[in-house]
């Protein structure tokens, strides 16, 4: 279990509860392995702090009796250790998730965790590629690796991210039968196990067809759509590494990541006159406020063009 690997400083009753909570996150909530690891890491630090603060390994009774002062002391300690506001906010989210689960199960009730305030975060503004840079990147991707089929794989993957606005995890979770040749749409399983239908452009099918025709590895309809050199499902780190090499070759900023292709998809649709609600559905955002960040990007780009081009703006 993750608990033993991280060596939680806790008594047996709390360890058993944490294991049950992690099973619930996986089976009921469909949390990703990355989320489970992040929550476990933050919880380990939290329990270690409580153990030092109370000079004993905490159990369930300790979680019930934690004061707001102790909870704030934990956050203050994280800040002194150099944790950013985003890191502290994530830690609160993970610990609060455990407390809420314990409360719903009738195991632990602590009213203070609900009033503990997370640091205010400024939503990051998406950093899309320009349309010419996106087009060049897709062309260059095929020429990067030594093996031609791997280059075609990378171009197909990046074309799918840019053409459908998928998250890298969503694209790499697809199997061949999820996106058969010529299909008009693809069904995507997004965050929170929410499904959505996304249109598939002919250019995406052309890139996928070229990749699949060149791939020398055996395949069935249940085979992962994107595979690594050994035939396993492609690891996201490989795609990010390929993008890193591409952006260095093209002189693009560090913000040019696979996820930036999703941002580019949304921003370029918005610039072309697409409805914000439609973009929300295509991206799978649960809240329109998340999608509205792209209006800030569009306004920022418009003002940059204005200030550069308008004669009165230069005086």
Automatic annotation (TrEMBL):
Domain Core-binding (CB): 12-103
Cell division in keyword set: yes
Transmembrane segments: none
Protein name: Tyrosine recombinase XerC
Gene Ontology annotations for the cellular component aspect, listed alphabetically: cytoplasm
Active site, UniProt feature: 167, 191, 259, 262, 285, 294
Family: Belongs to the 'phage' integrase family. XerC subfamily.
Pfam families recorded: Phage_int_SAM_1, Phage_integrase
CDD domains per UniProt: INT_XerDC_C
GO biological process: cell division; chromosome segregation; DNA transposition
InterPro entries: CB, DNA_brk_join_enz, Integrase-like_cat_sf, Integrase_catalytic, Integrase_recombinase_N, Integrase_SAM-like_N, Tyrosine_recombinase_XerC/XerD, Tyrosine_recombinase_XerCD
Keyword entries, A-Z: Cell cycle, Cell division, Chromosome partition, Cytoplasm, DNA integration, DNA recombination, DNA-binding
Listed GO MF terms: DNA binding; tyrosine-based site-specific recombinase activity
Organism the protein comes from: Niveispirillum lacus
Source species, domain of life: Bacteria
Protein task: Site-specific tyrosine recombinase, which acts by catalyzing the cutting and rejoining of the recombining DNA molecules. The XerC-XerD complex is essential to convert dimers of the bacterial chromosome into monomers to permit their segregation at cell division. It also contributes to the segregational stability of plasmids.
Residue span(s) of domain Tyr recombinase: 124-307
Subunit details: Forms a cyclic heterotetrameric complex composed of two molecules of XerC and two molecules of XerD.
Primary gene name: xerC
């Amino acid at each position: 279990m993750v608990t033993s690997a991280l060596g939680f400083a806790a008594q047996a009753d709390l360890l058993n509860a944490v294991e049950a909570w992690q099973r619930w996150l996986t089976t009921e909530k469909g949390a990703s392995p990355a989320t489970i690891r992040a929550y476990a890491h933050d919880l380990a630090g939290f329990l270690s702090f409580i153990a030092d603060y109370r000079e004993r390994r905490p159990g369930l009774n300790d979680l019930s009796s934690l004061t707001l002062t102790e909870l704030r002391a934990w956050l203050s300690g994280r800040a002194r250790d150099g944790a950013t506001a985003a890191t502290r906010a994530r830690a609160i989210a993970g610990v609060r998730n455990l407390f809420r689960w314990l409360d719903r199960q009738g195991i632990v009730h602590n009213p203070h965790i609900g009033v503990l305030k997370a640091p205010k975060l400024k939503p990051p503004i998406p950093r899309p590629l320009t349309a010419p840079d996106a087009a060049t990147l897709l062309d260059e991707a095929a020429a990067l690796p030594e093996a031609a089929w791997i280059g075609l794989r990378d171009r197909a993957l990046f074309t799918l991210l840019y053409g459908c606005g998928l998250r890298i995890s969503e694209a790499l979770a697809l199997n061949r039968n999820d996106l058969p040749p010529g299909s008009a749409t693809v069904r995507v399983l997004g965050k929170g196990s929410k499904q959505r239908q996304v249109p598939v452009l002919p250019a995406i099918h052309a890139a996928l067809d070229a990749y699949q025709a060149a791939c020398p590895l055996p395949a069935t309809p249940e085979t992962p759509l994107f595979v690594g050199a050994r035939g396993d499902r492609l690891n996201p780190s490989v795609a990010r590494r390929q993008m890193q090499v591409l952006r260095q070759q093209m002189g693009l900023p560090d913000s040019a990541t696979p996820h930036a292709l999703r941002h580019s998809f949304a921003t370029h649709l918005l610039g072309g006159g697409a409805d914000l609600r439609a973009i929300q559905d295509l991206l799978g955002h649960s809240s329109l406020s998340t999608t509205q960040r792209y209006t800030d990007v569009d306004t920022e780009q418009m003002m940059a063009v204005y200030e550069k081009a308008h004669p009165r703006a230069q005086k």
